[in-house]
C-alpha cells in the first residue's frame, strides 16, 4: 500500500513539475515567427515555442464591428476606461470612465498624445460586443482553456502603452483599424528595466519609456535587445508570457485583445494571483481631489 501511495504521489509531483516548468520557461531569441495559411494545430505548436508569432487574421466580423469608427456610431454613449500614461500618482485611479464619443474627440486633438483606452471588459459586456469576441476566437483559443479575457484598446496619434509584460498563456493582439508600432524585449532583458509590479491593477511593468528613454535609464537600457515591428489592419500577433512590449499608435487605431489561461498556466501563476487578491483588499485609490476644511 505504501509503495502504491508513493507511486501516486511521485506521479502527481512529476506531472505538476513538468507542467509548471513548461509554463514558466521562456525563450529569448530576438526573432518573430511569421506564418501563412496555418492550421490550428500548427499554430499551437509554434506558439508553444514561446516566441512572438505574427500572421494574417482577416476575420470580417471583428474587423468591421470592433473598430473605433464603427463603435463610436453604435456605442458612443457608453463609458470606456481612459488612461493618461504620463500620470504616475500612486494615490489616484489609473483608469477613469469617459464616454466613447468624448474620447474620440480627444483623440482628434494631436496635442492629446498621451491618452489611451484599455481595460474595457465592462464596456464589451454592456454593449454585447463580448459575444462577438467569443463567437470569433475558436481558432485562437488554446486547448484546456480555463479563462478567456477580452479587451478593446485604442489611443490618440503617437500615444503608446507603458512598457510591460503579460503572464497569461496566450496574448493575441489584432489590429482592426489603422496601424501600430510595437517594441518587443525578451524576458532575460528584464533585469535592465527596473521592473515594477502593480498588483492593484495586476500590471507588471517598467518606468522606462522605450520610445523616449529617460537619461537616468539610458546606461542600463543600452544593454537591452529590442525588436521593432509594424502591424497593419488584419494582422495579429501573439506576445508570449514574460516578453516585454509597448504599443505605439501611428494614428487613431483599434486593437482587439484575446488573452487565455489554461488550468495549468493558472496554477503556475498562483503566487501572483494571490498577491493581486491581497493587494485589492488593502489599497484605496482617490478618484477626486479632497478638500480640507482645517
TrEMBL record:
Residues 149-256 form the Cupin-like domain. Gene3D superfamilies: Cupin. This is Cupin-like domain-containing protein. The lineage of its organism: unclassified sequences, metagenomes, organismal metagenomes.
Amino acid at each position: 500500500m505504501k509503495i502504491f501511495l508513493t507511486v501516486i504521489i511521485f506521479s502527481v509531483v512529476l506531472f505538476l513539475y513538468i507542467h509548471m516548468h513548461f509554463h514558466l520557461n521562456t525563450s529569448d531569441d530576438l526573432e518573430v515567427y511569421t506564418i501563412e495559411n496555418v492550421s490550428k494545430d500548427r499554430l499551437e505548436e509554434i506558439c508553444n515555442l514561446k516566441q512572438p508569432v505574427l500572421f494574417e487574421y482577416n476575420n470580417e466580423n471583428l474587423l468591421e464591428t470592433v473598430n473605433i469608427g464603427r463603435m463610436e456610431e453604435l456605442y458612443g454613449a457608453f463609458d470606456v476606461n481612459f488612461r493618461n500614461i504620463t500620470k504616475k500618482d500612486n494615490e489616484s485611479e489609473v483608469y477613469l470612465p469617459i464616454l466613447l464619443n468624448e474620447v474620440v474627440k480627444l483623440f482628434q486633438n494631436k496635442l492629446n498624445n498621451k491618452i489611451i483606452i484599455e481595460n474595457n471588459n465592462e464596456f464589451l459586456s454592456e454593449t454585447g460586443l463580448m459575444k462577438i469576441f467569443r463567437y470569433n476566437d475558436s481558432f485562437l483559443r488554446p486547448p484546456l482553456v480555463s479563462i478567456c479575457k477580452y479587451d478593446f484598446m485604442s489611443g490618440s496619434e503617437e500615444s503608446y502603452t507603458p512598457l510591460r509584460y503579460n503572464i497569461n498563456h496566450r496574448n493575441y493582439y489584432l489590429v482592426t483599424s489603422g496601424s501600430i508600432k510595437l517594441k518587443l524585449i525578451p524576458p532575460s532583458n528584464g533585469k535592465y528595466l527596473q521592473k515594477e509590479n502593480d498588483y492593484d491593477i495586476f500590471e507588471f511593468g517598467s518606468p522606462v519609456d522605450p520610445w523616449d528613454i529617460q537619461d537616468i535609464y539610458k546606461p542600463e537600457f543600452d544593454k537591452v535587445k529590442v525588436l521593432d515591428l509594424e502591424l497593419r489592419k488584419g494582422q495579429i500577433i501573439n506576445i508570449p508570457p514574460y516578453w516585454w512590449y509597448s504599443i505605439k499608435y501611428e494614428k487613431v487605431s483599434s486593437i482587439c485583445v484575446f488573452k487565455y489561461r489554461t488550468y495549468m498556466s493558472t496554477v503556475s501563476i498562483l503566487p501572483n494571483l494571490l498577491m493581486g487578491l491581497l493587494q485589492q483588499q488593502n489599497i484605496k485609490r482617490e478618484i477626486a481631489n479632497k478638500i480640507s476644511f482645517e
